[in-house]
Each structure stands twice: as C-alpha cells, then as structure tokens.
Amino acid sequence: MRKRFCTALLGCLLLVFTAACGSGGTSTVKLAEVTRSLFYAPQYVAIEKGFFEEQGIDIKLQTAWGGDKTMTALLSDGADIALVGSETSIYVQARGSKDKVINFAQLTQTDGTFLVAKEPNPNFEWQDLKNTTFLGQRVGGMPQMAGEYVLKKHGINPETDLDLIQNVDFANIPGAFASGDAQYVQLFEPTASTFEKEGKGHIVASFGKESGHVPYTTFMTKESFMTNNEKTVKSFTKAVHKAQKWVQEHSAKEIAKVIQPYFEDTELEILASSVDRYKSQGSFALDPILDKDEWNNLKDIMDEAGELPEDVPYKTLVNTQIAEEVIGD
C-alpha cells in the first residue's frame, strides 16, 4: 500500500513539475506585420511549422495594414516586434524618439513589386513607360521609393515623363487599376499573377531585380524591449533563421501548401508560381543579417526619392549581434 502511495505521489509531482516547466518556458510575443503578403512566406512557415513553438515562443500575429500603423503599434506597446520596411525606423529616429527602433533580423532583401501592364507587351522596354498613366504606391513607402529609383535608373523622370497617380490606398490599388485608365501599376504577388491569369494585366518587369539588395522588410523592436528580453529576441531569430533555411531547401509548391492558410482565397497553383518567382530572383533573405551595403542602398533609394530625413549611420539602428550568434550556433 505504501509503495503504491509513493508511486502515485511521485507521478503527481512529476506532472506538476512538467506543467510548471512548460508554462514557465513559453514567452508570448505580439508580432505586427505591415500587411498580409506572400512576400513574407518565411514568417508564415516559421509559424505553421512550429519553429517558434520549438523556441518556447507563442506568436500573436496581427496585421496592421500600413507602415505608420505598424510603428504606432510598436511604439505604444501594442506589439513587441514589428515586420516592416527599415525606412520606418529611420523616420522614427528622425522624429527624435528616445527609444530607438532596432532592426535585428532581415526577412526580405529585394523590392517585392512587379510592373504590370494592362496590355500584353512581350518586348517591353522601360522607355515604353514614357507618356503613360502609372498607378504608383504610397509616397514615402519602400514600394514607391524603389519604383522611382528604378525609373530614374532607366532615364525616366516620374514627375515629368509620367502621369503618376499616388492617391490610392494600398489595399485599393489592384481594384483601381483593373477598373481605371492606368496603363501600368506596381503590384505584389500573388495579385500580379492572379491578374495575369484573369487577363486583367501582364507582368512585364521586376522592380526587385532592378533595385538591388535592400532591407525591404525586417523584424525590429524597441531598444528597451531588446535589452530587457534578449533571450526572447534570440529565440525569435533562431525560429526565423530555421524558416529561411527551410524555404531555401524546399520547393515552391511545398512552401505554398504550408502558407496556404494565410491566403485562403488564392489558388495553390498561383501561390506556388508566386513563391517561385520570389525565390528565383532572391527576394527571401538567406539569413537574418542586415549588412551595411544593404543599409546604404536603402538610404540611397530614400535620398533619391527626397524622403531621407537624416543620414542615420548603420550601427545606430541595426544590431546584427544576435543574428550572427544564431548563425554561428
């Protein structure tokens, strides 16, 4: 009897100990993404494949729908970590924020938009854009700045050579192009491929290929959060890096199947072709390190667009220490 009692007691203690360890080893991280985009495939892979869970992180994902809204969520503690363009951290720094926003892990390394024409143009040349109506992106955002950077690179002045439209909200741009008179538009995937399939447009060029490597979307957090939660930030980065490697090692179709729950209205075939397009042009970062050349390219693009508020040094808003440790582990 006494032996059975001791055995039962030992079992109860083991259960209590296990439960306590499990609850104590999990950190909840509020993650705000700037928009819902297939461009962020590695992030969704990390969630769906359980890579964050393996690191003891419970992700609470929210979609902010805009860079300004994303940064507001981060600065007001509505989010712990934000996935957004690195230019937003520069804007915050220029406004004199006492708590710097630190870029600590890069997710995408090229522009994610494609030039879509209303009519087929298999022999497209950038000069074809002159004297046309171009539906662009929001002023001050990376899609618009990278787009203008590429246009100028090809000798096109967006202000004088185009009828440039920039007063349409991001979410309404596809519909405005389909129903309006614009002859060209910048679109992300899978919208660009969906338009092709439906005959609403035709992909003629990639801004990602033309603009070079840039920290287009990175994970960032306030310096105070990073200081007080270094272990959590490192665990988060480990999960991201594992997802980056998984994406590189698996086919576009396998990736599409994993991330499909985030794009329920998009056919698997379109998701796969879109992922393949991003993979083939090297849009997904291979590791979480944001290097100095990419940072300087970002500033050049912002400066060219007249949107660089001040020359913020690389070391001021970029911390690669954790990413380097993760890669070295």
Characterise this structure.
The structure is a single chain. It contains 16 helices and 10 strands. By secondary structure, the chain is an alpha/beta fold. The chain folds into 2 domains: 199 residues, Periplasmic binding protein-like II (D-Maltodextrin-Binding Protein, domain 2, 3-Layer(aba) Sandwich), CATH 3.40.190.10; 99 residues, Periplasmic binding protein-like II (D-Maltodextrin-Binding Protein, domain 2, 3-Layer(aba) Sandwich), CATH 3.40.190. It has a 5-stranded mixed β-sheet with strand order 2-1-3-10-4, sandwiched between helices.
CATH class of the largest domain: Alpha Beta
What order do the helices and strands follow? HEHHEHEHEEEHEHEHEHEHHHHHHH
- For this structure, what is the CATH homologous superfamily of the largest domain? Periplasmic binding protein-like II
Low-confidence stretches: 1-24
Q: State the total count of DSSP E strands.
A: 10
Compute the number of helices.
16
Bulk shape? globular
In angstroms, what is the radius of gyration?
22 Å
- Arithmetic mean of pLDDT: 91
Quick rundown:
This protein is of the alpha/beta class and 329 residues long. It contains 16 helices and 10 strands.
Question: How does the SSE layout of this entry go?
Answer:
Elements lengths: L1 H23 L2 E7 L7 H8 L2 H4 L2 E7 L3 H9 L5 E4 L2 H8 L6 E8 L4 E5 L15 E3 L6 H12 L9 E3 L7 H7 L4 E5 L2 H8 L3 E5 H5 L5 E6 H6 L1 H20 L2 H8 L8 H13 L11 H13 L9 H4 L3 H8 L1
Parallel strand pairs: 1-2, 1-3, 6-7, 6-8
Antiparallel strand pairs: 3-10, 4-10, 5-8, 5-9
